[in-house]
């Protein structure tokens, strides 16, 4: 098979790495990819949301399958674009339909879906600029902290958690009236605060059947001890040590199964990943968000643990035969540590040469924001590399990642030294 993978981050490098282990994958293109994907596959300089160019490319190269990494093309409707075009509707797209992608594209859509299908989630209401006063009144009925969520995609920045009522009202007005997050905040979901520990659950579904992939926990804050600004994720651990059989059973029966059944009942086509963000409140899992893609850096720990042939799994997804394949998981722990550019998630520079990668031993270096310049690998983003290792437990795996990170260098390199600090 010839496969086209869309995206350019650490997630895509990890997906590419895993797909290339399949004997079925003869050729892999990544659009646009990064330096890491260029070493193992063929990068193509096409934007993942330039559907017309993607169509020309898949026809020219006889692509057999398109795998979508990030949410943007999904929310823009790449699945439907292929489905509705006779020239390319025979090519499966791994990802949900445009309606399905609304689970991530609209917080309100996701909340309505959760309530409709009786899936445990925080109480909420949603507001627009016309109902901003009602929103302020609603805030008064809640206990702090207050959770405000921009309805649309806001590059992971659209959730505000505020302790002060007056500040929450001001921010609600900023979002609704002053377009703090552009059109993404023309609607805002206000949600009850859930106090508990976070966990992410990953599902691969063909719209009828599903497979639960390994759990993972990521570390979103830039600073040690989970302090400072939110980032895309500074590290991840899989499996999550506290996700025992009892909790996983609850997650499956109360959340995963009703989600897939709900998609089917609502006639929503969905052939791809579902990333379910959970908060465990006193042992009970509650959904805080859906994403319609894999997480980054969670993919960098989840994919290496999947022993089954990923391309075969994708084919089963495309043919709605996921019930006919098995999913084998490596029982060892995997951890990844993100190495970022100093200044991230605020301003940072790009173009620093990365050295030392050839000395890395017994870890996998997934590239995130990197590119090749005159034969050298240079930084090209805030999150630069994800260093993944295996161990018999997560402590052993983390130690290995840190030992290898010590061999890497670029100007203003930063990473958190406490990934996994809160786990037993
Ligand atoms: P989201 O973009 O929906 O993942 O939200 C970003 C972060 O906000 C999550 O990872 C949680 O840490 C936090 N969060 C979201 N919703 C809630 C909630 N209802 N209660 C507590 N924390 C939340
Ligand atoms: N690491 C969180 C995300 O991918 O959304």
From TrEMBL:
It catalyses: 5-phospho-beta-D-ribosylamine + glycine + ATP = N(1)-(5-phospho-beta-D-ribosyl)glycinamide + ADP + phosphate + H(+). Its EC number is 6.3.4.13. Residues 111-319 form the ATP-grasp domain. Pathway: Purine metabolism; IMP biosynthesis via de novo pathway; N(1)-(5-phospho-D-ribosyl)glycinamide from 5-phospho-alpha-D-ribose 1-diphosphate: step 2/2. It holds the Pfam family GARS_N. The keyword Kinase does not apply. One of its GO terms (molecular function) is phosphoribosylamine-glycine ligase activity. It comes from the Bacteria. PROSITE patterns: ATP_GRASP. The keyword Manganese does not apply. Keywords: ATP-binding, Ligase, Nucleotide-binding, Purine biosynthesis. NCBIfam families: purD (TIGR00877). Belongs to the GARS family. This is Phosphoribosylamine--glycine ligase. It comes from Flavobacterium buctense.
């Amino acid at each position: 098979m010839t496969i086209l993978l869309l995206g350019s981050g650490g997630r895509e490098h990890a997906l590419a790495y895993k797909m290339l282990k399949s004997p079925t994958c003869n050729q892999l293109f990544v659009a646009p990819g990064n330096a890491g994907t260029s070493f193992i596959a063929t990068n193509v300089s096409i934007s993942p949301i330039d559907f017309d160019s993607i169509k020309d490319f898949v026809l020219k190269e006889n692509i057999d399958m398109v795998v979508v990494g990030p949410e943007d093309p999904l929310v823009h409707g790449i699945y439907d674009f292929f489905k509705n075009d006779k020239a390319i509707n025979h090519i499966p797209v791994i990802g949900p339909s445009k309606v399905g992608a609304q689970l991530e594209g609209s917080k309100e859509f996701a909340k309505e879906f959760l309530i409709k299908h009786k899936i445990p989630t925080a109480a909420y209401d949603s507001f627009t600029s016309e109902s901003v006063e009602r929103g302020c009144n609603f805030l008064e009925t809640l206990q702090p902290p207050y959770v405000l969520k921009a309805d649309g995609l806001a590059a992971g920045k659209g959730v505000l958690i505020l302790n002060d009522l007056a500040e929450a009202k001001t921010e609600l007005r900023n979002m609704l009236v002053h377009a703090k997050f552009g059109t993404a905040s023309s609607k805002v979901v206000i949600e009850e605060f859930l106090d508990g520990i976070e966990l992410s659950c990953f599902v691969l579904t063909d719209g009828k059947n599903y497979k639960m992939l390994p759990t993972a926990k990521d570390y979103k804050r830039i600073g040690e001890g989970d302090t400072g600004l939110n980032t895309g994720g500074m590290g991840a651990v899989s499996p999550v040590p506290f996700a025992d059989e009892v909790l996983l059973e609850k997650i499956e029966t109360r959340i995963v199964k009703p989600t897939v059944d709900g998609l089917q009942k609502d006639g929503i086509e969905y052939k791809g990943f579902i990333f379910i963000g959970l908060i465990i409140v006193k042992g009970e899992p509650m959904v805080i968000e859906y994403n319609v893609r894999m997480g980054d850096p969670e993919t960098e720990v989840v994919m290496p643990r999947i022993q089954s042939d990923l391309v075969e799994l994708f084919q089963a997804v495309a043919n709605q035969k996921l019930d006919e394949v098995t999913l084998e998981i490596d029982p060892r722990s995997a951890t990844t540590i993100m190495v970022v550019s100093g200044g991230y998630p605020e301003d940072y520079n790009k173009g620093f040469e990365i050295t030392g990668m050839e000395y890395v031993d017994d870890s996998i270096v997934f590239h995130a924001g990197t590119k090749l310049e005159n034969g050298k690998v240079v930084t090209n983003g805030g999150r630069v590399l994800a260093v993944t290792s295996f161990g018999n437990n997560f402590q052993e795996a983390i130690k290995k990642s840190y030992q290898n990170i010590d061999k890497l260098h670029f100007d203003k390199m930063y990473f958190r030294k406490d990934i996994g600090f809160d786990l037993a």
